[in-house]
């Protein structure tokens, strides 16, 4: 059976309180249309995991959808910081902040069904002071050598969203360019939703190019421009003017940001 | 100071001069990225650059706004993911050099990229770790590129995002860290090397004296035998590359 659906239908898997995982990176391949749909649907109380914070996460946090954030920092590159995220953290939003590798290992452990993975990242960092009490990381002794090593616990989000270049109707998704933690994040999650620049018929994606196997994908929505204004390698560049405007609105926050989101992201959704 | 080059240009040139032809390097956003590309185009064309986002050996020709800018990934050898670059290459021990920026640094080269407090007690948050902690924890040696701002040098950083050469005054290996930690700080005034004994004033930039560097550095500096070297000034070729190709808009070097 085809997994192709509308964006709104696909995103119905995200409910109030869902542990959502996003796979954008700063100003590239953010699931902006999907995030906007979550805002439009008025979802609240999300736990959000994203290895490297990007615009989609800032959009959801700034729109009040997120109660808890798990990430490794992030930015809008030279366009600015994740202002809404930083403001929410300063205001007390529960946040776990890792390094890129240690959080990637958490989702890898989740994907493999392992309780934890060991690493030498994060050791000695004050970031650990906040992660140990919440069960994200713990120093252990390597049982083979007796030397200290850090264990990072598995993480298993409920729903992951990947914005792909091409996806077939069975959910086999191709992502062009660098892959950061996209695959591990998706495979760690119970449900994967793919938004794609282009949806093609069964067997329409070269199997060698499939990054996310359709086996783990539950819904596919064709959303051309779904990453705009961030860059989608192989499809389009970032939109510098829009990113500049976004950064200014996120920095301003409050009603300014709310109006910006309604105008730039939500208004277009009705006709999409 | 001579007006022939900007502080950023001097930092990029000085940092580039420390890279080695055989380095496999992971570099952060901004001046580290510019310095590595300058080295790739001039003194150490064999250097192998990696980007944490999952790029092996990019050859960018246009200025990029950061590592998430596809301009930065141009003409790579290959693409991969975090597990390839920060995992197999860095955690696996193949990355010989990391180069990072920072908000604050302590005498052992520990870094704060998370937050700083204002005088009124308010806290300003920045971009956090990203791959910075991974690089500082695991790379063979780490260069820190930063403005020579006395507020950046701290007896102890406000938030220890990434460990330096020592932790709590003890060798970092005792804690389970595998890389060498910070080995050099490159500023717009000098090159400082980090040793077990402390920070050494290895080289002063043209227009600076050992006294002017010491006077602007609120932490003890060890004088090497025979005194510090003088860093080579930017050449015309380096300046042309920096100004016309690597950072024509002056995003990082002005």
Strand % of chain B is 15-25%
CATH superfamily of chain B: Glutaconate Coenzyme A-transferase
- What general outline of chain B do the C-alpha atoms trace? globular
CATH arch. level architecture of the largest domain in chain A: 3-Layer(aba) Sandwich
Derived from helix and strand composition plus strand pairing, the structural class of chain A reads alpha/beta
Number of β-strand runs of chain A: 12
- In whole angstroms, the N-to-C terminal distance of chain B is 15 Å
How many distinct domains of chain A? 2
Overall pLDDT level of chain A:
96
- Poorly predicted runs of chain A are none
Helix content of chain B: 10-25%
The helix/strand order of chain A is HEHEHEHEHEHEEEEHEEEHH
Low-confidence stretches of chain B: none
Q: How large is the radius of gyration of chain A?
A: 18 Å
| Order of secondary-structure elements of chain B | HEHEEEHEEEEEHEEEEEEHEEH
What can you see in these coordinates?
Chain A is α/β, with parallel strands linked by helices. Chain A folds into two domains: about 5-95 and about 155-265, Glutaconate Coenzyme A-transferase (3-Layer(aba) Sandwich); about 115-155, no CATH class. Chain A has helices at about 5-10, 30-40, 55-60, 85-90, 100-110, 125-130, 180-190, 240-250, 255-265; strands at about 20, 45-50, 65-70, 95, 115-120, 135-140, 150-155, 160-170, 175, 190-200, 210, 215-220. In chain A, strands 1, 2, 3, 4, 8, 9, 10, 11 and 12 form a nine-stranded mixed β-sheet that branches. A three-stranded antiparallel β-sheet of chain A has the order 5-7-6, covered by helices on one side. In chain A, strand 6 and strand 7 (about 150-155) form a beta hairpin. In chain A, helix 2 (about 30-40) runs parallel beside helix 3. Chain A is globular and about 55 Å long. The two termini of chain A are about 25 Å apart. The model of chain A has no long low-confidence stretch (mean pLDDT about 95). With about 250 residues, chain B is of the alpha/beta class. Chain B has one domain: Glutaconate Coenzyme A-transferase (3-Layer(aba) Sandwich). In chain B, about 20% of the residues lie in helices and about 20% in strands. Chain B contains six helices and 17 strands. In chain B, strands 1, 2, 3, 4, 5, 10, 13, 14, 15, 16 and 17 form an eleven-stranded mixed β-sheet that branches. In chain B, helix 1 (about 5-15) crosses helix 2 (about 30-40) and helix 2 crosses helix 6. The model of chain B has no long low-confidence stretch (mean pLDDT about 95). At the A-B interface, helix 4, helix 5, strand 7 and helix 7 of A face helix 3 and helix 4 of B.
């Amino acid at each position: 059976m085809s997994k192709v659906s509308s964006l709104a239908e696909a995103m119905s898997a995200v409910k109030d309180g869902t542990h959502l995982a996003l796979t954008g990176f700063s100003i590239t391949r953010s699931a902006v249309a999907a995030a906007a749909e979550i805002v439009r649907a008025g979802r609240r109380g999300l736990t959000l995991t994203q290895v490297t914070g990007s615009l989609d996460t800032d959009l959801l946090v700034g729109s009040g959808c997120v109660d808890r954030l798990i990430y490794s920092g992030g930015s809008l590159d030279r366009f600015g910081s994740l202002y809404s995220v930083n403001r929410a953290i300063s205001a007390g939003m529960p946040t776990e902040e890792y390094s890129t590798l240690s959080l990637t290992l958490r989702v890898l452990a989740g994907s493999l069904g392992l309780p934890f993975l060991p690493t030498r990242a994060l050791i000695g960092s004050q970031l650990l002071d906040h992660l140990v009490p919440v069960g994200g990381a713990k120093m252990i002794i390597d049982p083979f050598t007796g030397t200290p090593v850090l264990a990072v616990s598995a993480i298993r989000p409920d729903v992951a969203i990947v914005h792909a270049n091409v996806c077939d109707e069975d959910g086999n998704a191709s992502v062009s360019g660098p892959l950061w933690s996209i695959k591990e994040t998706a495979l760690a999650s119970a449900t994967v939703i793919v938004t794609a620049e282009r949806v093609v018929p069964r067997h329409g994606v070269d199997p060698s190019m499939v990054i996310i196997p359709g086996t783990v994908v539950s819904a596919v929505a064709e959303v051309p421009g779904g990453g705009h204004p961030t860059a989608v390698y192989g499809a389009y560049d970032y939109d510098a003017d829009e990113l500049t405007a976004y950064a200014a609105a996120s920095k301003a926050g409050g009603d300014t940001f709310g109006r910006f989101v309604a105008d730039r992201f939500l208004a277009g959704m009705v006709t999409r | 100071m001579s007006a022939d080059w900007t502080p950023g240009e001097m930092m990029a040139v000085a940092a580039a001069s420390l890279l080695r032809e055989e380095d496999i390097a992971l570099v952060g956003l901004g001046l580290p990225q510019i310095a590595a590309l300058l080295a790739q185009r001039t003194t150490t064309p064999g250097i192998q650059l990696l980007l944490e986002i999952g790029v092996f050996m990019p050859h960018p020709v246009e200025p990029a706004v950061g590592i998430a800018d596809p301009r930065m990934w141009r003409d790579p050898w290959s693409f991969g993911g975090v597990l390839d670059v920060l995992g197999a290459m860095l955690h696996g021990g193949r990355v010989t050099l990391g180069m990072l920026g920072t908000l604050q640094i302590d005498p052992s080269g520990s870094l704060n990229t998370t937050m700083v407090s204002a005088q009124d007690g308010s806290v300003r948050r920045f971009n956090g770790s990203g791959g910075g902690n991974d690089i500082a924890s695991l790379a063979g040696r780490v260069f820190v590129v930063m403005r020579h701002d006395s507020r950046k040098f701290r007896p102890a950083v406000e938030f220890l995002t990434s460990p330096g050469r020592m932790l709590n005054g003890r060798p970092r290996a005792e804690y389970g860290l595998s890389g060498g930690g910070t080995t050099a700080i490159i500023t717009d005034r000098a090159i400082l090397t980090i040793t077990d004994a402390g920070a050494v004033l290895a080289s002063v930039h043209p227009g600076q004296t050992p006294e002017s560097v010491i006077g602007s550095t609120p932490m003890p500096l060890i004088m090497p035998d025979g005194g510090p070297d003088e860093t080579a000034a930017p050449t015309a070729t380096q300046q042309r590359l920096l100004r016309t190709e690597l950072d024509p808009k002056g995003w990082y070097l002005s």
